[in-house]
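fyi for ur records
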Amino acid sequence: MIRLWVDNRVDFSDPRNLFTVGITLIFGAGDFTVNFGGFAMGGIGTATLAAIILYQALSIGRGKSVHPAEAGAAAE
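which gave:
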């Protein structure tokens, strides 16, 4: 998982990314489980769902973000 972040040059100076990664690691390592009636989701499933929801929630009102490499290409 960490290799994906490094290969995609995730900007960890952005608090939105740092907070999302921290929560994801805590949920995944802690094997956090959520039960919906007879359905249980734990570990990596809960961590992935939390990351997706949290990142989107933190992105509300920020406008469109541009990857630094794309910003450089657009300026040329």
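The CA atoms of residues 24 and 50 lie 7 Å apart. thats all i got for now
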